[in-house]
Design a protein that fits this description.
single chain; mainly alpha; 9 helices
Length: 186
């Protein structure tokens, strides 16, 4: 049975290694689950599992350690329940949360920015899920290639490949919509 000093040490370690990563865990969880409520649940379960495993943590690479816990927690959660269909209202709320309304500038600028943003979202949503998730983790959440690889449990080269292919597809989509220059023409 653990004594009070063991609990104190766990709390100190939790504050040192886990608490500073909660914000990035939340952003990654939202990218993985694509739902605020599920993301919050995933982060809470990850934090609980991290606290339970803190006695075995060596103190090296806390973010990678937490991403591994999050990935394993998500896999367990996914296996326990089948994914439900997203309602149209949930999808619109998610898309609106990623595209805050444009402020300032002319009406034409606002229209072009909104059209560009819509086309980027359309291009992003057209990607295969693996590419879309990598783009969200790196370009939206701001993770490094290594952090995204750790969060997804895949090699860094795979992350880079998916990122390149996904960005190329979005660029092509924007070009086809007349919102980006054609590639290869000078």
């Amino acid at each position: 049975m653990a004594n009070a000093s063991d609990h104190d040490q766990l709390n100190i370690s939790f504050d040192r290694y886990v608490v500073p990563e909660i914000e990035v865990l939340t952003r990654v969880a939202l990218s993985i689950t694509r739902n605020h409520s599920d993301a919050s649940d995933l982060v809470q379960e990850t934090l609980l599992n991290a606290y339970k495993g803190l006695g075995n943590f060596d103190g090296l690479y806390p973010r990678a350690w937490l991403f591994t816990i999050m990935r394993n927690t998500q896999i367990k959660r996914y296996r326990k329940r089948r994914p439900s269909l997203i309602t149209k209202e949930e999808l619109e709320a998610f898309e609106n949360s990623k595209n805050p309304s444009h402020s300032g500038g002319s009406a034409e600028d606002a229209f072009l920015a909104s059209q560009f943003g819509e086309e980027v979202l359309t291009g992003l949503n057209a990607l295969v899920p693996a590419q879309r998730l990598v783009i969200e983790l790196i370009d939206v959440v701001g993770l490094s290639y290594g952090e995204a690889a750790e969060a997804l449990g895949i090699p860094q080269g795979t992350v880079m490949s998916r990122l390149h292919r996904g960005r190329s597809s979005i660029r092509q989509h924007l070009s086809d919509a007349g919102l980006a220059p054609k590639r290869g023409l000078r």
